[in-house]
């Protein structure tokens, strides 16, 4: 039996640290352009208490999302100890393409996956490179697609990357700008015969009846800014409620497909969007099985790295596998879950035996 096994992981954590204190002098505005009655210190403290974010990372001006993806890909390839010329697919998840520093235009021609393949120096034309737009769950969905190629017998080695520079598409007058960060994570998924490790099951969903535009591009809250320039915007309360009502159910679908019991799940690597939201999702997930939440089940990186969209899950996975998050580890044979939610509105989950 052929299994789809993650044989290498890598991440690129950008070097510029931006703490919450550095937002003290920002002019935060309401959607109608009016001032907040609260001081920035109060706004920032409330933000931290809800999201858990203390600081986030921004990319250097000279690097774009494809550069970050390339750096993470190099590490994953090295970790997997493979020849990049043997890759059948390069799947790169992002949402905004390459946005140059101080620019307002996204560049996705050629695709970011093509750019990474070029930077890696891969000459093999049979290595197919393409991008995936699936909101924050894009990297997880890329891993699901890699497994599909492997199960179909048309691929043996796939490189899946998530890369984003969200700091370049935020409205500085919007409090939500404090959530977003830059970064990249990657993994190599390989076909392995007779392996006990690998992807066991998965689930993916997209909700659009009412939810399609919970995340969208909109004008700056500062009415003096160019009205034709758009920034990432979100209906935060609606997203929070949507995630709590739907992500646990999708995770349950994936776990029930696997035939594995909830008691066997050792770790849940969930999209790092909001600490309180993630905690509530995990609580509801275990409540579906009438089980208490095991201690240490949910590693977190959001406190120092913020929300880097498609990069959060692969980054978190790599940090734990490399022993870089205190009191968190994954051992051979452990069952773990990868889960995410984001614009679309889309949700996915993977059950994986390490």
From TrEMBL:
<protein>
    <submittedName>
        <fullName>3-oxoacyl-ACP synthase III family protein</fullName>
    </submittedName>
</protein>
<dbReference type="GO" id="GO:0006633">
    <property type="term" value="P:fatty acid biosynthetic process"/>
</dbReference>
<dbReference type="GO" id="GO:0004315">
    <property type="term" value="F:3-oxoacyl-[acyl-carrier-protein] synthase activity"/>
</dbReference>
<dbReference type="Pfam" id="PF08541">
    <property type="entry name" value="ACP_syn_III_C"/>
</dbReference>
<keyword id="KW-0808">Transferase</keyword>
<keyword id="KW-0012">Acyltransferase</keyword>
<dbReference type="Pfam" id="PF08545">
    <property type="entry name" value="ACP_syn_III"/>
</dbReference>
<dbReference type="InterPro" id="IPR016039">
    <property type="entry name" value="Thiolase-like"/>
</dbReference>
<feature type="domain" description="Beta-ketoacyl-[acyl-carrier-protein] synthase III C-terminal">
    <location>
        <begin position="255"/>
        <end position="354"/>
    </location>
</feature>
<dbReference type="GO" id="GO:0003988">
    <property type="term" value="F:acetyl-CoA C-acyltransferase activity"/>
</dbReference>
<dbReference type="InterPro" id="IPR013751">
    <property type="entry name" value="ACP_syn_III_N"/>
</dbReference>
<dbReference type="GO" id="GO:0044550">
    <property type="term" value="P:secondary metabolite biosynthetic process"/>
</dbReference>
<feature type="domain" description="Beta-ketoacyl-[acyl-carrier-protein] synthase III N-terminal">
    <location>
        <begin position="130"/>
        <end position="203"/>
    </location>
</feature>
<dbReference type="InterPro" id="IPR013747">
    <property type="entry name" value="ACP_syn_III_C"/>
</dbReference>
